[in-house]
Structure formats: C-alpha cells, structure tokens
Amino acid sequence: MADRVYQEFYCTKSGGGCGKYILIRLNMAINRTVEIICPNCGHKHQRTIQNGVIKEAGRFDNKPVEEICPPESAVSDESIAKNGRGSERDAAIIQFFKQ
Length: 99
Known about the structure:
By secondary structure, this protein is an all-beta fold.
C-alpha cells in the first residue's frame, strides 16, 4: 500500500465547478472523509479514504472531518492523466510512491 497518492481531480462544470484540473497528494494512511477544495473556484470534492483505499461508492454518506486546500499552483487547464478524459470523469490516480 502506498503512503501517498497523487490524484488529479476534474472540477466538473456540470457539478458547479470551473472545468479545471487539480493535482493533489492524498495521505492514504488516514481513515476519514475529506473534502478537497478547488483553489480556483471553491468547489468541493469529497472522498472517503479507508484502509488505504479511496472509496467512490458512498462517499457522501459521511460528514467530512478534514478540508484539504491545495495551492493555486495545483490548478491546470490541461490534464496530465490522458486516460479516459473524454468525459467529465471526476478523478484519476496519477502515481503511487513510498515516502
């Protein structure tokens, strides 16, 4: 299991976001629900991390216990994850690494 994961989020326009990409590093060693806040528009992306896995199903079942606010430098007009970007896919894991 990786301690940290780079994950790219697409801030979906259909969900009220700005249509930009956000690259963040998530701590996979925590067991909690977090909200990643887009530094460009303030749109919130909720994720539940449980036992080293990002849970997509049921992610809105729990109230977030932590807000993650990446810097503006994490925002981009272009995706670095080229797989599956023909639609408003919400997030893609970019790279695993041990720290």
